[in-house]
């Protein structure tokens, strides 16, 4: 995203939002000038949540970029993968990583409103849970 932004804008300030709806609201309320949202994934197809949100806003799509996405498991320091029992994530990364996740059938998969929300909860709980 930085590569795209530098190509079209002199200065950028990145913001993180808790979910796709907040991304759109930030632009609508002029807290942000633009947003970058996923609308399609080669593995899981259309991101229906984003399409639905776009139908209820006056904002317009002004460009398109293709980004390779790499997911990581985030855990508290010194967490051994053998001790992971729950993965918290937005549904899209869970779908996109299903082949990998199937290698660990004992892991419980918990949906969250966003992956950033899952990270925030992980830092608060300080337990041996992980997120994607």
Keywords:
single chain; about 130 residues; alpha/beta; two-stranded antiparallel sheet; 6 strands; globular
Structure description:
With 132 residues, the protein is an alpha/beta fold. The longest helix has 11 residues, at 115-125. Helix content is 33%, strand content 12%. The protein is globular, with a radius of gyration of 17 Å.
Main sheet specs: 4 strands, mixed
Number of strands: 6
Uncertain parts? none
Q: Provide the helix percentage.
A: 25-40%
Task: Give the number of helices.
Answer: 6
Rg is 17 Å
Shape: globular
Provide the structure class: alpha/beta
Q: What strand order characterises the main sheet?
A: 3-6-4-5
Amount of beta strand? 5-15%
Question: What's this, in brief?
Answer:
The chain is of the alpha/beta class and 132 residues long. The protein has helices at 2-8, 20-28, 48-54, 91-96, 98-101, 115-125; strands spanning 40-41, 45-46, 74-75, 86-89, 108-111, 130-131.
List the topology elements.
Elements: H1 2-8, H2 20-28, E1 40-41, E2 45-46, H3 48-54, E3 74-75, E4 86-89, H4 91-96, H5 98-101, E5 108-111, H6 115-125, E6 130-131
Parallel strand pairs: 4-5, 4-6
Antiparallel strand pairs: 1-2, 3-6
